[in-house]
Each structure stands twice: as structure tokens, then as C-alpha cells.
Design a protein that fits this description.
Shape: elongated
Strand content: 15-25%
CATH architecture of the largest domain: Sandwich
Largest sheet: 5 strands, mixed
Number of domains: 2
Strand order of the largest sheet: 9-8-7-10-11
Order of helices and strands: EEEEHEEHHEHEHHEEE
CATH topology of the largest domain: Jelly Rolls
Helix content: 10-25%
Radius of gyration: 22 Å
Low-confidence stretches: 128-135
CATH superfamily of the largest domain: Jelly Rolls
Mean pLDDT: 80
Distance between the termini: 49 Å
């Protein structure tokens, strides 16, 4: 039995409803969105491979069914962030006792993320990492890169982008996004890191990413601004 999730069986075997259990008081609440250990009954040993977001503009829109044959089949954990969606699953497993049966659930953004009183106009998100475990930050970065519509401006003194990050940045340029990187010039305290990061310059420049090297002095700011709506600031030292 999980303290953070209620897992409810449905009429279709292996289709389960996951209800999160927020912990809170008069100040607000904490709600765990995912936990590999507590959701093992749902996810098994499968890890998260993608995090996708979709927007339905018009009420009543039918988005269609999604299915992939093995070995490309996917296990999905679906949530509604805003509004409501009627999510339907159809059992297409030949030989199953519930073959071609379907089950639907209304997922509500208000039910999953109750609105809290506004305390200002700035919308922010805090990502905290313990020791050198940085997994939440690359995930947040990847989501921001993939969702950007106008600009991605990054300042980073120790920029060593992965192949996936380079792909996301160049694909953003192809969508018309203004992608700029401000990186250290001659003055830096990690020349080996700078040299390693420069190995990605060629692909990024060919893909339309604008790269600037700061010359006056050393920079230590680690920041990212996406569409003037999302920002991330890790450290700033004079």
C-alpha cells in the first residue's frame, strides 16, 4: 500500500487508475507526481523514456486512439493538467478475456492540481538536486527546449551539451525559435570542460544556434530563459 498513491483496478486487466495523495495544510500541499518504487505495480521495471505534453484547443475534440506494435509498444501514464479529458483505453490483445472491451475515465486538472491562491504574477518552479544527482534538471530542460516557441537563451560557463540536447536545440531553430548560448571566452577556470563543450559547436552552428563567447572576464552564471515565460537560474557568483 502506497502512502502517496492509490492504485485502482479497472475492468480491463493491466489498466489501472492512479490517484495521487497530496499532503498539505493551510499553507499548501506537496504531491508526488511519480515514484518508481511506489508505482512499480503499474510500471514494472520500465523506466521513463519520454515526457510529452499535448494541448487540445477546442472543447469536445476527439484526439483518436494510439497504438504501436511490439517492440515499439509503450506503457503510458496520463494526467490532465488543466480542464478535463475523457481518456479511453481499448483492449486490442487477441485472446484476452476482455478483447475489444473499452474503459474510460474522466481526468480532471482541478482534481489533480487544486488551485492555490495567487501570491503574485510570477510563475516559477524550483528544481532541487541532492549531491550530484541532476536528473530533474535535464528533464526540465528537455521539456522546455521541446516546448519553446520564441526563444531559448542560455548562459553556462561549463556547457557540455549531450547529443540529445544538441538535437533539441537545433530542432527548436527549425521551428523558428531564437536559440542563443552565452559561453566563456578566454577567461575560464575549467579549460578542459570548455574544450569538451566546443566539440558540439560545429553541429549547433550548422543547425542555426547562435553561440557567443564572453570576453571581458570570467562568467559563472548558469541561467536559461525560454519564451520569457520559463526561467532557470542555478548559480550566480561575482
Amino acid at each position: 500500500m502506497s502512502d502517496r498513491f492509490e492504485i485502482v483496478d479497472t475492468p480491463l486487466p493491466q489498466l489501472m487508475l492512479v490517484r495521487r495523495k497530496p499532503i498539505g495544510d493551510s499553507r499548501g500541499y506537496l504531491e508526488r507526481l511519480f515514484c518508481a518504487d511506489e508505482l512499480k505495480a503499474v510500471m514494472g521495471d520500465k523506466g521513463i523514456k519520454q515526457v510529452n505534453r499535448t494541448l487540445t484547443v477546442k472543447r469536445g475534440t476527439v484526439r483518436g486512439m494510439h497504438f504501436q506494435y511490439p517492440p515499439h509498444s509503450e506503457l503510458k501514464l496520463v494526467s490532465c493538467l488543466r480542464g478535463e479529458v475523457f481518456d479511453v483505453a481499448v483492449d486490442v490483445r487477441e485472446g484476452s478475456a476482455t478483447f475489444l472491451h473499452w474503459h474510460g475515465e474522466t481526468l480532471s486538472g482541478a482534481g489533480h492540481f487544486p488551485r492555490l491562491p495567487d501570491v503574485g504574477e510570477l510563475k516559477s518552479q524550483l528544481v532541487a538536486s541532492h549531491s550530484f544527482s541532476m536528473a530533474p534538471i535535464p528533464l526540465a530542460q528537455a521539456t522546455a527546449f521541446a516546448a519553446a516557441e520564441k526563444r531559448i537563451w542560455i548562459t553556462n560557463p561549463y556547457c557540455t551539451p549531450t547529443d540529445d540536447q544538441v538535437d533539441l536545440l537545433t530542432k527548436a531553430v527549425q521551428r523558428g525559435v531564437d536559440v542563443r548560448l552565452l559561453l566563456p571566452g578566454e577567461n575560464n577556470d575549467q579549460p578542459m570542460t570548455k574544450s569538451a563543450g566546443r566539440s558540439a559547436y560545429g553541429r549547433m552552428l550548422e543547425g542555426g544556434v547562435k553561440i557567443f563567447e564572453y570576453q571581458p572576464t570570467m562568467i559563472h552564471t548558469k541561467s536559461m530563459v525560454v519564451d520569457s515565460l520559463f526561467s532557470m537560474r542555478v548559480a550566480c557568483m561575482a
